[in-house]
Amino acid sequence: MAAGIVLLGLGLLALPCGAEPRCFCQVTGYLDDCTCDVETIDAFNNYKLFPRLNELLESDYFRYYKVNLQKPCPFWDDNSHCGMRDCAVQPCPSDEVPDGIRSASYKYSEEANNLAEECEEAKRLGAVDDSLSKETRQAVLQWAQHDDSSDSFCEADDIHSPEAEYVDLLLNPERYTGYKGPDAWKIWNSIYEENCFKPQNVKRPLASGREDDGGHTFYKWLKGVCVEKRAFYRLISGLHASINIHLSARYLLQDTWSEKKWGPNITEFQQRFDEVLTRGEGPRRLKNLYFLYLIELRALSKVLPFFERPGFQLYTGNKSQDAEMKNLLLEILHLAKSFPLHFDENSFFAGNKKEAAKLKEEFRLHFKNISKIMDCVGCFKCRLWGKLQTQGLGTALKILFSENLIEKIPESGPSYGFQLTRQEIVALFNAFGRVSTSVKELENFRNILQNMR
Q: Stretch 354-360: mean pLDDT, rounded?
């Protein structure tokens, strides 16, 4: 057995020779509702995009994320915060966060950056207004209004709240924390049962404590609903699968007084994705991960004009690094645009305009509700990554549904119709980084299982 890989659980120590196909034999070929196949995504992600994206996410602009982890759960009384040390999040001391990020999160344009350097003592955006040009002041006002507009798919944190703190994502990686059982199940059950358009009488496959018919009724229902509702479920399922892959890939293998050792737990992976152990659900979950990948990749390809503007900067205060990271960002976005088999989002919200608008609003409100549920997660590290990834996916959906506004973005000057906050930018790329990492980790698990045969 390869070093650094753990096998746990009775009945799984001696796996049959078909163990590898059981996880992956159905995770191949074309995806439902798409013209793309799994193999094309694997090759594109693992050998082209993933290495560049990893480098970008290690930069100062993308590693610091401001988040309020103290917001109370809005749906039920919950004091069941995880007391385990691996659930804890260590916020950044303020002097470790680059000045350009800490002092003002609205510094995107070259003009705003230059003006802001003269106003480092200002604590609030309002104090800076008097020193801004009329054009820039209008742009900042538009940005602030846009953040609260009905186009948002997420319940955004108030980053000016005293309880909001910067977190270094590289020092708080997403991995196994021990957070599981009824509390964790309650979160996902609330998401699936109350926010995925599913009628109460249709039971999810493998729902805890319920008898099911192998998913026949559920998938018959799912096949019969409109493409938008089917896509919504698949996005949430894909996000759930991605999170489970991270927990399986970075599992606590050894915990002694001298060291902690993290690595892939093949049994944990199989319990979540093996075709036999999950009664056919595992491969479906993995295919939904690839669907999520396509949606977020499509958003990156669509948002290129916003980032291509000469005045846009990934501002941290380090001019040379900021320029270098913007070049890398544009390289990634051009690479995303070059992907040959993009998802066609034009199938969403087509047909009768009135019905389409109503469905789009339902879609948005359901997803916004899911972002609120993240404040009910008892493990702070899980809450951090849950909030970031839902905001990232919400930002991707916002981009896909704002195509007309993005096409009208001028090459220079402020963008009034479409805007992204720094929080949304950081969440968008880190969320896609998580999905990209999951696809890469699948290659690793596939190789481990093949070597065990």
A: 82
**Torsion, CA 163, CA 104, CA 167, CA 401, rounded to 10:** 100
Q: Write out the E strands in 20-150.
A: 64-68
Burial class (CB in 10 A: 0-12, 13-18, 19+), 437: buried
3-state secondary structure of 371: helix
Q: Are 371 and 390 in contact (CB under 8 A)?
A: yes
For residue 251, what are the β-bridge partners? 263
Residue 332 in tokens: 């990634």
| 346 in Cβ contact with 404 (< 8 Å) | no
| Distance (Å, whole) CA 56 – CA 79 | 37
| 3-class SS of residue 30 | strand
Return the beta strands (E) in 164-232 as ranges.
164-168
Decide if 108 contacts 415 (C-beta within 8 A): no
Hey, which residues does 265 pair with through a beta bridge?
6
CB of 188 closer than 8 Å to CB of 240: yes
Model confidence at 105: pLDDT above 60: no
- How many C-beta neighbours within 10 Å does residue 192 have? 17
Least Cα distance to 140 among 151, 157, 121, 127 occurs for: 127
Provide the pLDDT for residue 158: 64
Side chain identity at residue 98, one-letter code: P
**Amino acid at residue number 183:** D
Structure-model confidence comparison of residues 249 and 100, the more confident one: 249
Count of Cβ atoms closer than 10 Å to residue 372 Cβ: 17
* Token reading at 71: 């917001």
H/E stretch holding 328: helix 319-338
| Distance of alpha carbon 203 from alpha carbon 193, whole angstroms | 9
Report the Cα–Cα distance between both ends of the chain, in Å, rounded.
11
Question: Considering the entire predicted model, what is its pTM?
Answer: 0.82
| Residue range 181-212, pLDDT digits in tens | 888 888 988 988 888 888 878 888 866 555 56
Q: Determine the Cα–Cα distance for residues 29 and 32; give it in Å rounded to an integer.
A: 10
Nearest-CA neighbor of 37 among 294, 223, 283? 294
